[in-house]
Known about the structure:
Layout: H1 2-7, H2 12-32, H3 36-48, H4 53-58, H5 64-77, H6 83-92, H7 96-109, H8 115-123, H9 129-145, H10 150-168, H11 175-188, H12 193-198, H13 206-219, H14 225-234, H15 238-250, H16 257-266, H17 270-283, H18 289-305, H19 314-327, H20 334-346, H21 352-361, H22 363-372, H23 374-377, H24 382-394, H25 402-423, H26 427-432, H27 439-447, H28 454-458, H29 461-464, H30 468-479, H31 485-501, H32 507-519, H33 521-531, H34 537-547, H35 550-555, H36 559-568, H37 590-598, E1 604-610, E2 613-619, H38 625-636, E3 643-644, E4 647-649, E5 653-656, E6 684-687, E7 699-702, E8 715-719, H39 721-729, E9 735-743
Antiparallel strand pairs: 1-2, 1-9, 2-8, 3-9, 4-5, 5-7, 6-7, 6-8
Helix pairs in contact: 3-5, 3-37, 5-7, 6-7, 7-9, 8-9, 8-10, 9-10, 9-11, 10-11, 11-13, 13-15, 14-15, 15-17, 16-17, 17-19, 18-19, 18-20, 19-20, 19-21, 20-21, 21-22, 21-24, 22-25, 24-27, 25-27, 27-30, 30-31, 30-32, 31-32, 32-33, 32-34, 33-34, 37-38
Amino acid sequence: xxxxxxxxxxxxxxxxxxxxxxxxxxxxxxxxxxxxxxxxxxxxxxxxxxxxxxxxxxxxxxxxxxxxxxxxxxxxxxxxxxxxxxxxxxxxxxxxxxxxxxxxxxxxxxxxxxxxxxxxxxxxxxxxxxxxxxxxxxxxxxxxxxxxxxxxxxxxxxxxxxxxxxxxxxxxxxxxxxxxxxxxxxxxxxxxxxxxxxxxxxxxxxxxxxxxxxxxxxxxxxxxxxxxxxxxxxxxxxxxxxxxxxxxxxxxxxxxxxxxxxxxxxxxxxxxxxxxxxxxxxxxxxxxxxxxxxxxxxxxxxxxxxxxxxxxxxxxxxxxxxxxxxxxxxxxxxxxxxxxxxxxxxxxxxxxxxxxxxxxxxxxxxxxxxxxxxxxxxxxxxxxxxxxxxxxxxxxxxxxxxxxxxxxxxxxxxxxxxxxxxxxxxxxxxxxxxxxxxxxxxxxxxxxxxxxxxxxxxxxxxxxxxxxxxxxxxxxxxxxxxxxxxxxxxxxxxxxxxxxxxxxxxxxxxxxxxxxxxxxxxxxxxxxxxxxxxxxxxxxxxxxxxxxxxxxxxxxxxxxxxxxxxxxxxxxxxxxxxxxxxxxxxxxxxxxxxxxxxxxxxxxxxxxxxxxxxxxxxxxxxxxxxxxxxxxxxxxxxxxxxxxxxxxxxxxxxxxxxxxxxxxxxxxxxxxxxxxxxxxxxxxxxxxxxxxxxxxxxxxxxxxxxxxxxxxxxxxxxxxxxxxxxxxxxxxxxxxxxxxxxxx
Length: 744
């Protein structure tokens, strides 16, 4: 009101202008508002994975914001039945936001049926920029999801041509088309992509330069190394320098060794340093080792002075250890070993990176240490056992020679004895032993040796183990063995057990299905049809995907009819009720939906107190209402309090929310993905997944832009730049002491 009074004290013309602005703002607000009842209808359809007349009608609503939101729902549901309605919106709607969102949805559905439509949009260089940008993004997603289809090559060509057009424009190239086109190119890797991507390395926009470097790194091309070296040495944007380092490493550009080493030792940004250290490893130039060791020892001195249990230097130290392991494999280099032993001791042998590095540099000495020092190797923290198992598994890939053969045999026999010791252990003790979290790594390590006895040793665990993650590991290993009737029958039996008894984790059920399919598609069909009776949507969904395989259907001609019947019974949708658990079903009530969609961006936040300091997540409930609501409910129940950060990848993500600590834990329920158009920039907060719609409690924060995650993982919050200083300092093992929710 004060602003209005002030406005009307000025000249008549300015008063009129202010009034027009006010009326326009009110009109926009009215258009933008979607009634809560309508939003609930949309979110329910998303939650059920149901595309029907409800959403089709809303796509024709008079309000553009409602049409846009209904199109986003179609993207999340992923049913290609929505394609006709979406293409109509792209072709005929008068609102650019609606057209852009409909194009985004077509990409999310990933149906090859849309290939011609998408290439048609891209061929029209006069199309509006927002729509072209989403069209090039869609081309990348559709082509990547249908790589074997001939149409995917046409989509790849369209991506390259779209980027070439933008690179050649004399004025006003479209930034969004370039950025989304670069990501599309790295997803598809079409012919000619590297050459056109390189044109953007000298672009004035720092984000474009960085994304071009990222794309070249992921494509692994040797093109444009001169430009990348210039970027590494002089670009003002640290992410551009980091991505240039990654790209030079991927190109194995030996002429850049000195520059990469300088960046690894002295760049002011730790994200650049860790990227350069990793790149040096790919160049296989051992001349850098002495300086890396000196740098490592200097960091260890700072590490020891730190007031923190897990000093922030740990991220960089582990990267150095990994690089030394790759460069000095089999050398028994004393300086490298001395540095790594100091790091291992300080870290209490809990980091796979340093254990693997030691095993690579001196495998014989490492196996001897495991045998002679079991109290250190298999200490009270199960993470030490996990790290040791992973290190022993790397010995399977040693270069073949007489000495290595002896070490391999010794390591394999050690792993067999450890497995037998676990199998023969007291079940009551095992049930209470956190060492269970390390057993999948033990089994995978043994499998790496490709022993003829692998199946015979591991198969009994399918019946004896109560932990579904162990059974999942066994099933995964057996699926990679030669076809074996005993393995197949054991897997079938294990599937029935998992289907009936596993209530908190469905990993075993899903992995067994995949392994049966790999071993014998025809014989697997019976089990897959049985899976359609599961209360878990994720199990039914995977069964429908596998049953849709053309080769399987060729051997089982009745399967297509069974799929049609299953869809008619809504087996492709999510049900609301289950007596067996909360996985893959709807856990939200009407009150949950109303509360979730009523929140506005900025109305609620989470304050996280960690061992390194405090940072805040500003939630985006308008973009991901159920994901935000799920996080808030878990936080208010104290779920996250005291959990250790189980994953940190420098210059990528910090990840938390795992109740087990091994990367597999969750709350015993799953939520649907709420993909949106929010980009994964620095500080984006997303939901971690093991496949679509598998989110639960694990979340992550990005250290730097990660465009390849866009549209694949739900963005539901942001951390500001001040908070990111705390996030950057967090290392694996740090604890989230508590999370406090501010707002409703």
